[in-house]
Amino acid sequence: MSLFPESIIILKNKALEQARPLFTAIDEISEQNTARVLRAFRNHQISEYLFRTTTGYGYGDSGRERLEAVWAELCGAEKALVRTQFVSGTHALSCVLFGLLRPGDALLAVTGAPYDTMQTVIGHTVHTPGSLKECGISYQEISMTADGINIGAIAGYIRNNTKIALIQRSRGYSLRKPLTIEEIREACAEIKKHKPDCICFVDNCYGEFVEVAEPTSVGADIMAGSLIKNPGGGLAPSGGYIAGKAELVNMAACRLTAPGLGGELGATLADIRLFYQGLFLAPHVVNQALKGAIFAAVLFDLLGYKTLPRPDELRSDIIQAIELGSPDKMIAFCQGLQQYSPVDAHVRPIPGPMPGYTDQVIMAGGTFIQGSSIELSADGPLRSPYIVYLQGGLTFEHAMLGILGAASAIARQ
Question: Quick check: keyword Lyase in the entry (predicted)?
Answer without folding.
Answer: yes
